[in-house]
Amino acid sequence: MSDASGPAIARIWRGRVPATRADEYEAYLFEHGIKPLIEKAMGVQSLREDRPGETEFVTISYWESVEAMARFAGSDPRRIHHLERDPEFLIELPKDVQILQIRFAHGRTGGALA
Questions:
Q1: CA-based, 20 to 30 A from 35: which of 10, 45, 73, 91?
Q2: Please, are residues 56 and 48 in contact by the beta-carbon 8 Å criterion?
Q3: DSSP string, 9-70
Q4: What are 79-89's pLDDT values in tens digits?
Q5: Close Cβ partners of 32 (under 8 Å, ≥ 6 residues apart)
Q6: 74-89 residues labelled b (16+ CB within 10 A) or e (exposed)
């Protein structure tokens, strides 16, 4: 059901940091994780949820195919490529990412930077 000209695949990464380091990690994540995705993916979203004591970040990148994603992420697109300072920031290093087929999208699903 995905539009032929739009993305067919979403790759979702999640990571949690102590709330006291959330702003610092967000800037680091954008500079070293999001910017390279912007250059390769069809689209990228960065989401943040502040909770008591911790903050969760979710990065969703959109791809035309698994093959296109593999050209960026390597032969196993579920494999995590941790950023150099992730062990310093993250409460727990994620073990994998989610790869989902986009079956339907409607309306304005993106957002501007806050």
A1: 91
A2: yes
A3: EEEEEEEEEEGGGHHHHHHHHIIIIIHHHHHHSSEEEEEEEEETTEEEEEEEEEES-HHHHH
A4: 888 999 999 99
A5: 83, 84, 85
A6: eeebeeeeebeebeeb
